[in-house]
């Protein structure tokens, strides 16, 4: 009976691969499309930053508030275990 257990994993793998492919195509095609519309390199780079900004904000916001360290001025536990320090919270 290994066939039914493999089907959900295969579907998950295929959906993740197609999602990553679509994200990669969008990340590479958007600056090329902007470059065909304008020749200003500042606009092209600015639109690339604007395209990436929601992902940066969504990632840095939760990472800057680690669980268990609530409150200003509180320090991490002395055990050394816990979430890694986020580069966004510096």
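^ Assign residues to that structure.
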């Amino acid at each position: 009976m290994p066939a039914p257990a493999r089907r959900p994993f295969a579907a998950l793998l295929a959906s993740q691969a197609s999602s990553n492919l679509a994200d990669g195509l969008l990340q590479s095609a958007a600056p090329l499309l902007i470059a065909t519309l304008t020749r200003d390199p500042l606009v092209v780079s600015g639109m690339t930053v604007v395209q990436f900004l929601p992902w940066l904000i969504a990632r840095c916001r939760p990472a800057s508030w680690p669980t268990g360290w609530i409150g200003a001025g509180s320090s991490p536990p002395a055990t050394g275990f816990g979430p890694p320090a986020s580069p966004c919270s510096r």
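The chain has a mean pLDDT of 76.
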